[in-house]
Design a protein that fits this description.
nine-stranded mixed sheet, alpha/beta, 6 helices
């Protein structure tokens, strides 16, 4: 088995983010900052070049990806701080492929075997993510309106702007891909008040410690440098 790659999202860019990245790198995993490295200009979700992020991983000997994503919950029963390891996604608007021929006709998805390893490792590390769920990818960079949330909530569990695109490209490159989604907010319209970016950022900071500790416990179990 080859090396593990860990892709970090917006969770790793705010206060506590450096500790999250350090926890991942400490165990030998290849680290990708999805939105750009700390100190560089922030790359908006719809402007991310996923192929450019993922191709170098092949040269680094990686064969599997653990992607960390910040998401909004589509149900009040799935509260802030929850962890979800989705097993499917919806991204009907997405027209994305590294191929320009018939190779683009793929059937993408999260790798079932690798998902199982990730969930088992996280449980053994003392945190139990929800096993399964549907990730709905919106275009971004804006957040969704309450009406949009009412439309998509019956069909998905969490909403974000990047994981589906990344999963498609990873699969086309031959990388096993699983995502660990951290609920940083209730989707717009589910809470008592309109979604506040300031409140979202505060919840994200609160989740940073849990994510850092989770990665520190999980990566040794996953064999970050191969086995």
């Amino acid at each position: 088995m080859g090396r593990l790659a860990v892709i970090l999202g917006s969770n790793a860019l705010g206060p506590g983010g450096e500790e999250i990245a350090a926890a991942a790198a400490e165990h030998g995993a290849a680290i990708v900052q999805r939105h750009g490295a700390a100190g560089d200009p922030y790359v908006l979700p719809h402007q991310i070049d996923h192929a450019a992020n993922l191709r170098p991983l092949l040269e680094q000997g990686c064969d599997r990806v653990l992607a960390i994503g910040s998401v909004g919950s589509l149900s009040t029963g799935l509260g802030v701080g929850s962890l979800v390891c989705p097993d499917d996604f919806i991204a009907l608007h997405l027209g994305l492929s590294i191929f320009d021929d018939q190779g683009a006709h793929t059937a993408p998805g999260f790798d079932a075997r690798w998902r199982g390893e990730v969930i088992s490792a996280w449980e053994a590390g003392g945190q139990s993510p929800r096993d399964g769920g549907v990730y709905w990818q919106t275009i971004g960079p804006r957040y969704e309106t309450p009406a949009e949330i009412r439309m998509i909530a019956p069909h998905a569990d969490v909403v974000g702007m990047t994981i589906a695109s990344e999963c498609v490209v990873a699969g086309e490159l031959g990388l096993d891909y699983a995502a660990l989604c951290v609920v940083d907010n209730l989707a717009n319209g589910l809470g008592a008040d309109t979604l506040s970016v300031a409140e979202l950022e505060a919840d994200r900071v609160a989740n940073a410690t849990r994510l850092r500790d989770g990665l520190a416990a999980v990566l040794p179990r996953l064999g970050a440098v191969g086995r």
